[in-house]
Amino acid sequence: MRRRVQSESARADRNHMPNWTDNLLTVTGSADRLNEFLAAVNGENGVVDFATHLPQAPVDDEGHEQSWWGFNACATELTEHTPARLVFYFQTGWEPPLAWAECVAEKYPDLRMSLLYAEEGEGYAGLWISNENGTADNWLNVNVVGYPAVWAFLDSLGCDFGWNAPDNEPYDRDSVPQVG
Predict the structure, then answer these.
(1) Least confident residue range of 32-36, 62-66, 129-133
(2) What pLDDT score does 12 carry?
(3) What are phi and psi of 172, to 5 degrees?
């Protein structure tokens, strides 16, 4: 069962910038800790305010500010709020907020978090996880595995970010590894 996570207004907003990354953050834990987490990420700039936990933009290996930080989380929606689970959908500019996720995971080690992210224009998708064993990030890029593998990855996680199927996207079918 694929779950559509992007609203009509979010899809319309993505036309203002060519490369939005779709993010689906799921956080599980005790009700008290989830409420603390929700209050902590609710900053003056809105739900999922990166500056709340990273007052200065993180930099990459070359000393450049990470592009997603300056845009903050856009089109943010709290799509699920139960006593044991929070699910947020939001967009970031160009790339997922992995440095922010790592920082938040350090502050809330008792919560389990997953950040599913995908960027249609550049053709990549990934999954970042935080639990009692630490954090891990794995991703697929269409230049290496082709669009069908990236779409299969998202489908296997039951995720539909509302993208069009890449029927006409060029890639070398012989370079696509067989998955499954």
Answers:
(1) 62-66
(2) 42
(3) -85, 105
62 pLDDT above the threshold of 70: yes
Please tell me the total count of domains within the chain.
Answer: 1
Are the beta carbons of 81 and 111 closer than 8 angstroms? Answer: no
Degrees to nearest 5, angle at CA 113 with 39 and 121: 100
User: Do the beta carbons of residue 86 and residue 37 sit within 8 Å?
Assistant: yes
Question: Does 32 fall in a domain?
Answer: yes
- Asked whether residue 178 is domain-assigned, the answer is no
d(CA 176, CA 173): 5
Q: DSSP for 95-163?
A: S--HHHHHHHHHH-TTSEEEEEEEETTTTEEEEEEEETTEEEEEEEEHHHH-HHHHHHHHHHTTEE--P
Q: Domain residues for 120?
A: 3-163
CATH of the domain at 143: 3.30.70.1270
Confidence of residue 11 (pLDDT cuts 50, 70, 90): very low
> Is 180 contained in some domain?
no
Task: Give the model confidence (pLDDT) of 49-58 as tens digits.
Answer: 776 766 677 7
Q: What is the DSSP letter of 178?
A: P
The answer to whether residue 176 is domain-embedded is no
